[in-house]
Amino acid sequence: MTALSFSDRPSIPRPLRSLVALLFVFAAVGSAQSQTVLWSEEFDSPSTLDCSVWSFDIGDGCAEGICGWGNAEFQDYTRDPANVRVENGQLIITAQREQIGGGPSYAFTSARLKTENRMTFQYGTVEARIQLPDLADGLWPAFWTLGNNISTVGWPDCGEIDIFEMGNAGAIAEGVVNRRVGSTAHWESGDGYAGYGLSYTAPSDLNDTFHIYRMEWTPSAISTYIDGIWIWTIGISNPSSFDGEEFHAPHFLLLNMAVGGNYTGIVDDEADISAPFPAEYRVDWIRIYDNGHTILGGTGPRGPLSLDRAGNDVELQFATDVGISYDIVYKTNLSDSTWTVLQTVVGDGSVMSVFDPIGAPGAYYRVVSAD
Fold first, then answer.
1. Residue 165 bears catalytic tag
2. Which fold has domain 14-290?
């Protein structure tokens, strides 16, 4: 979710091109449904977001020194219920347009949510069930990640993974804006920017119906899918060869819908935004599955880290923040409503590990913030 469109994105620095090209290989992966859910957001609260997990970016980006959010976008982000709400088990991000003074100028509002510091993950299978509005033309929805160290190292040094984004200028020009889905990785290389992205054009419009967007992230590769159809893969198994260490560190999730911006090719005149308003971006659920490499972190509530595994070979691994207390809890009967605290640990900023907590077959564990 950056300022660079597919046609505008600079290529990988020339000395790295051949080497990195060898890494962009197709990687077949299994169904996420056969994996254990480590964390999920079902949006099942009656009307509010879980603020221990989600926070908001607010305004037009100028307070962060990136007016237009670095992308020449038109909208202000808010946390107003007119722009973001939970309703009937769904998160709804609504982009609004207001005509200013009866003239040709418009003001736009929308919402951008993130799990920064509160829920982070390194590797894993991520799925979300999402319905998009009519994007034609000028709406730019995205589901993406940023490295959780962005506040200290900045972008692109933190790394970014666009699980999906739509609304690209090229798709607008070709009349397939509601059909083309893009995925891209962005990172720092040689003190500059590097990026790699591909897109998939569906045979029919994707808006107004729910679809499953998925990312499979392992130490070897990152791949994305829509409804099980492969979009894109980047190999990351040798990060030193392309300065890709950003993809071996904790990331957090973001959901947003921008209006205009470089990606859409509409940056000069708000009147060129022709998409119908209000426009609703609906999210039914988001789930992170354990693909054998996944490490959860952050200060918010955790999902289960081990499920129905033999007690003598269970190892819980979880990323920690310095000074935050974590309770390791368990139960052996999944129908029990209460959890038993096994132990409390204080995070030191590293990935902590607890091996064979109680040695019981069929135990169910969680790690939760004790603060």
1. yes
2. Jelly Rolls (2.60.120)
